[in-house]
Design a protein that fits this description.
31% of the residues lie in helices and 32% in strands. With 103 residues, the protein is α+β, with helices and mostly antiparallel strands. The chain has one domain (3-12, 31-97). The protein has a 5-stranded antiparallel β-sheet, with helices on one face.
Length: 103
């Protein structure tokens, strides 16, 4: 199984484990696109075990279309990345949420 499938499976499991009949009505995970081009991800941490954890804004830049940013603000984990970095970005959330450091 590819790394992208592993991280997607993990994210699906994490999301499902937050759903308690109430959380999913107000919070969730949003994945969208940027026009530069790239991806944006917003993962709500409100009412999860992660809501009080912080992640300072960090950026890795390897090229014009090869970059990743990760940070928390307002009980939300934010990711932004280049057009081919979505798997890497989601892996940063997984590492951070699992107790490791992202970026």
């Amino acid at each position: 199984m590819s790394e992208s499938m592993h991280v997607l499976d993990w994210l699906q499991h994490w999301y499902a484990s937050q759903c308690d009949g109430e959380w999913e009505h107000e919070w969730g995970v949003t994945i969208g696109t940027l026009d530069n081009p790239g991806w944006t991800v917003r993962i709500d941490l409100e009412e999860t075990d992660l809501e009080d954890r912080e992640h300072p804004r960090r950026r890795i830049t390897r090229g014009e279309d090869d970059w990743v940013m990760a940070w928390t603000s307002d009980r939300t984990f934010h990711l932004a990345c280049g057009p081919r970095n979505l798997t890497e970005a989601l892996g940063l959330f997984r590492a951070w949420a699992s107790g490791g450091d992202a970026v």
